[in-house]
Design goal:
three-stranded mixed sheet; alpha+beta; Peroxisomal Thiolase, Chain A, domain 1; binds coenzyme A
C-alpha cells in the first residue's frame, strides 16, 4: 500500500517587506541579506491574520476535491500557538465545517512538529487505510526589531491531506532521528519573540543533520546518491545550501558544486521571497521544488531534513508520483506570492508592533487583505474568526474560489 501526500497547499499573508527597505532602515549592506543569508523579501501578517487564519486558508485549498467525511484526524503543528490549552486544530476544524466525528490535536517541537505530524499521519493511515489525516502547519517567525534574526522573519502555512491515495508524493516510513537538549532557540511563555543564539543554532542544526543521516543510513542502507533532490528545513535560504554541501562533504560525494546546487536550489526559491515560516518552512520548500515548471519530477526521489531547535531532527525520503502536477494548483500559489502588497518600513513596524489587548475587553481588528478567513477581534478573552465575503477576499483567488465552493 502506498501512503503519502494526496494534496498539498500553501497560504501566505497579503503583505510583505522588501529586504532592501529593511537594509536601509538598519543601515546594513543589502548584500548581507541577499547574498549572505539568501533573503529578498519577507511576508508580514496583518493585524487580522494569525496562525489560525493562515492555516484555515491553506487547508481550504488542500481540501478541494477531498471527501471531507474521510478526514477523521486534524493535526495542527505550530510554535506560535494562540492558546496554552485549546488546540488550534479545533478552530480550523470549525472554520472548515469538518465532520464532528474527528480527532483534533496540536503538536509542538519548534520547526519540526509538522514532520512528526506527517509520520503520525502515515501510521494512522497504515492502520486505517480508509481514513485521511489533515495536517496544518502554520507559523509566524518573529525575532525582534533590530535583531540578527529579523531579516529571516516570515510567515505562512502549509496544509496536507495524508492518505492511501497519494497523488503528490509517497512518503517512506523509515526515518533517521536525533534529539539533544540544547538551547539554540526558544520562546518562554512570557515573550512574543524567540530568543536565539543564531550561530550556535547553525552548528547544532548541522550536527543534527549528520546524526539523522547516520541513523537513517543504519536503518535503510541508503546512500547519498539515492536521492535526486533534497529539501532542508529553511530558517533562511542559504541554510539549505550550507546543509547540503555539509552532507555532501561528509558523504564524499563526487558531484560537482554545480550539480550539488541543482539538487537543492529549486527548493529554496519560495523561502527567499517569503522568509521563515517555522513548521511550514520545509514543506514550502517542497512546494517550491514541485512548482518548478522546467523540472519533470515524476518518480524522483527526494530526501528531507526536518530540524526543530531545542533540538530534534528527522531525515526521511519520498517519491514524487506520476501526474503530481494535476491538482497542485501552482498558478494560484505563484499569484499569491506575486500579489502581496509591499509595505513601507513604517507600515511593517506598525504591523509588527500591533498586539491584541490582554484584558479580555471587546476589540475589533481593522479589515486588511486576507484570504477567506480573518481574525475579526477578541471578546471575553476569546479570538473571534469570520469568513470573508467572497467578493472581499481579495488576496487569494484560489482561496476565494475554494471558499465559494465550500458549504455555507
Ligand atoms: N555581503 C555578502 N555577504 C555578507 C555580508 C556582505 N556585506 N556581510 C555578511 N555576509 C555573510 C557572512 O559572511 C555570513 O555568511 P556565512 O555564514 O556563509 O559565513 C552571512 O552573511 C551571515 O552573516 P553573519 O555576520 O553571520 O550574520 P549575523 O550575525 O547577522 O547572523 C544568523 C546570521 C543566521 C545567525 C541570524 O540571522 C539568526 O540568528 N537567524 C535566526 C536563527 C537561525 O536562522 N538559525 C539557523 C538554524 S535553525
Amino acid at each position: 500500500m502506498k501512503i503519502g501526500i494526496e494534496t498539498i497547499s500553501m497560504y501566505v499573508p497579503g503583505y510583505g517587506l522588501d529586504l532592501r527597505e529593511l537594509a536601509k532602515a538598519r543601515n546594513v549592506d543589502y548584500a548581507k541579506y541577499h547574498q549572505g543569508i539568501g533573503q529578498e523579501f519577507m511576508s508580514v501578517p496583518s493585524p487580522d491574520e494569525d496562525v489560525i487564519t493562515m492555516g484555515a486558508n491553506a487547508a481550504l485549498q488542500a481540501l478541494e476535491g477531498v471527501e471531507r467525511e474521510a478526514i477523521q484526524t486534524v493535526i495542527f503543528a505550530t510554535e506560535s500557538g494562540i492558546d496554552q490549552s485549546k488546540a488550534g486544530a479545533i478552530y480550523i476544524h470549525h472554520l472548515l465545517d469538518l465532520p464532528s466525528n474527528c480527532r483534533t490535536v496540536e503538536m509542538k517541537q519548534a520547526c519540526c512538529s509538522s514532520t512528526s505530524a506527517l509520520h503520525f499521519a502515515l501510521a494512522t493511515v497504515a492502520l486505517k487505510p480508509e481514513q485521511k489525516v489533515l495536517i496544518v502547519a502554520s507559523d509566524e517567525a518573529r525575532y525582534g526589531l533590530g535583531t540578527a534574526g529579523e531579516p529571516t522573519q516570515g510567515a505562512g502555512a502549509v496544509a496536507m491531506v495524508i492518505s492511501a491515495h497519494p497523488k503528490v508524493m509517497e512518503v517512506d516510513v523509515d526515518v533517521g532521528y536525533f534529539t539533544e537538549d540544547v538551547m539554540d532557540f526558544w520562546r518562554p511563555n512570557y515573550l512574543d519573540e524567540a530568543l536565539v543564539d543564531g550561530k550556535y543554532s547553525i552548528k547544532v542544526y548541522l550536527n543534527a543533520l549528520e546524526q539523522c543521516w547516520n541513523h537513517y543510513q543504519q536503518a535503510t542502507g541508503a546512500i547519498f546518491e539515492d536521492f535526486d533532490h533534497f529539501c532542508y528545513h529553511l530558517p533562511f535560504s542559504r541554510m539549505g545550501l550550507k546543509a547540503h554541501l555539509h552532507l555532501a562533504r561528509q558523504e564524499k560525494s563526487s558531484l560537482s558544486a554545480r550539480e550539488l546546487q541543482q539538487q537543492v536550489e529549486p527548493s529554496l526559491h519560495y523561502n527567499r521571497i517569503n522568509g521563515n515560516a517555522y513548521t511550514a518552512s520545509l514543506y514550502i520548500g517542497l512546494l517550491s521544488l514541485l512548482d518548478q515548471p522546467q523540472l519533470n519530477l515524476e518518480g524522483a526521489r527526494v530526501g528531507f531534513f526536518s530540524y526543530g531547535s531545542g533540538c530534534m531532527g528527522a531525515f526521511f525520503g519520498g517519491t514524487v508520483m506520476a501526474g503530481y502536477r494535476e491538482g497542485l494548483n501552482s498558478e494560484a500559489r505563484i499569484a499569491l506570492l506575486r500579489d502581496r502588497r509591499r509595505l513601507s518600513y513604517e507600515e511593517y513596524e506598525e504591523f509588527y508592533t500591533h498586539a491584541l489587548p490582554e484584558n479580555g475587553h471587546a476589540y475589533r481588528t481593522r479589515r486588511h487583505r486576507t484570504g477567506a478567513f480573518r481574525l475579526a477581534g477578541v471578546e471575553n478573552h476569546q479570538r473571534i474568526y469570520e469568513r470573508v465575503p467572497v467578493q472581499m477576499a481579495a488576496h487569494s483567488d484560489a482561496s476565494t474560489r475554494a471558499y465559494a465552493a465550500a458549504p455555507a
